[in-house]
């Protein structure tokens, strides 16, 4: 039998743009997307037309009660996420929810506590865990090739936040709805990666944020310094300030939706005996006596792979590949960084 999936708050850009969860789900032979919800019925109908789904709801509770889905993909505004999660938990429906799952750690902790008490399957999409850099780094850590670890560096500077209003998610630029900009949105990926690579408590030692590039009410750049319990140092940089104008990667969109595209990214982990770096689609390994370059592009679409892995784990009755508790650990660090950051400066 196919997995009957419904989606909540599909005005979120990841519904059909960027990660494009709905487009991946309707391609899966063992999945039936039975209904879509958004408080804005016009946007929900537009999303439904884009992926060929017939049933549309402006009330998520009515959708859940009427359609009785097996599984839910929950997207939406950050200030509504926690309430949606509790609605799903109270109805006993397992789900995957977009990060950050709430406006702050307190909201996410409430979800984790209830999910744990009820034994619920609550997943979070963190596809960076399976990126070639992360796979190679974990392999080298297990083999002891780094020796004593020194530091980790992660930079994710993505294209302009102009994409949010163009993709029906203008709320992302409203700090009351989003609870932050690039750090709240992108920071989860980098901070979760730190915990995967060095599985011990981390603390934020310094942070700064700026809206200097785009002048929005939320930050378009953030830098965060961290230290692990054993003394590994980390630097996280996230931003929406990649300046190049191009339509590459967006040619399947209507012309009015073609936005700034591209990214400036770099990931490094360095130890006593080795350095692993990912940049410009390549992996570079530098040892004490040699240097190697390897392809660094993912084998397939990361979002599709994450959805497939999550649904397979759910079907098998196992734990999610990335859980609400994993998200909470990252959100706690994001909250700490905001607490230390200077006020926004233009």
Automatic annotation (TrEMBL):
Provide the leader sequence positions.
none
- Residues forming the Gfo/Idh/MocA-like oxidoreductase N-terminal domain are 21-124
Q: Which organism is it from?
A: Cupriavidus malaysiensis
Give UniProt keywords alphabetically: Oxidoreductase
Cross-referenced Pfam families: GFO_IDH_MocA (PF01408), GFO_IDH_MocA_C3 (PF22725)
Name the domain of life: Bacteria
What is this protein called in UniProt?
Gfo/Idh/MocA family oxidoreductase
Query: Residue ranges of the GFO/IDH/MocA-like oxidoreductase domain?
Result: 134-245
Q: What PANTHER family is this protein classified in? A: BCDNA.GH03377 (PTHR43818:SF11)
């Amino acid at each position: 039998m196919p997995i009957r999936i419904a989606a909540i708050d599909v005005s979120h850009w990841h519904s059909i743009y960027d990660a494009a969860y709905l487009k991946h789900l309707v391609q899966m032979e063992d999945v039936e997307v039975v209904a879509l919800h958004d408080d804005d019925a016009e946007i929900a109908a537009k999303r439904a037309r884009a992926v060929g789904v017939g049933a549309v709801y402006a009330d998520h509770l009515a959708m859940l009660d009427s359609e009785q889905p097996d599984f839910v993909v929950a997207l939406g505004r950050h200030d509504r996420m926690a309430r949606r999660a509790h609605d799903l938990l109270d109805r006993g429906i397992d789900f995957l929810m977009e990060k950050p799952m709430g406006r702050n750690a307190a909201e996410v902790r409430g979800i984790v506590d209830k999910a744990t008490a009820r034994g619920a399957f609550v997943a979070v999409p963190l596809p960076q865990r399976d990126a070639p850099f992360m796979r190679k780094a974990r392999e080298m850590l297990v083999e002891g090739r780094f020796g004593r670890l020194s530091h980790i560096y992660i930079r994710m500077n993505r294209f302009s936040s102009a994409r949010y209003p163009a993709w029906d998610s203008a709320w992302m630029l409203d700090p009351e709805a989003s609870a932050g900009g690039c750090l709240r949105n992108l920071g989860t990926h980098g901070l979760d990666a730190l915990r995967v690579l060095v599985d011990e408590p981390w603390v934020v030692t310094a942070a700064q944020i700026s809206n200097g590039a785009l002048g929005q009410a939320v930050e378009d750049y953030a830098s965060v310094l961290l230290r692990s319990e054993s003394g590994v140092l980390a630097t996280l940089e996230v931003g929406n300030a990649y300046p190049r104008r191009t339509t590459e990667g967006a040619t399947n969109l209507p012309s009015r939706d073609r936005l700034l595209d591209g990214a400036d990214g770099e990931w490094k982990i360095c130890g006593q005996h080795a350095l692993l770096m990912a940049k410009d689609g390549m992996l570079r390994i530098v040892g004490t006596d040699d240097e190697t370059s390897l392809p660094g592009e993912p084998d397939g679409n990361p979002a599709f792979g994450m959805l497939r892995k999550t649904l397979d784990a759910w079907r098998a009755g196992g734990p999610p590949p990335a859980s609400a508790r994993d998200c909470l650990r990252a959100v706690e660090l994001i909250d700490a960084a905001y607490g230390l950051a200077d006020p926004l400066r233009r």
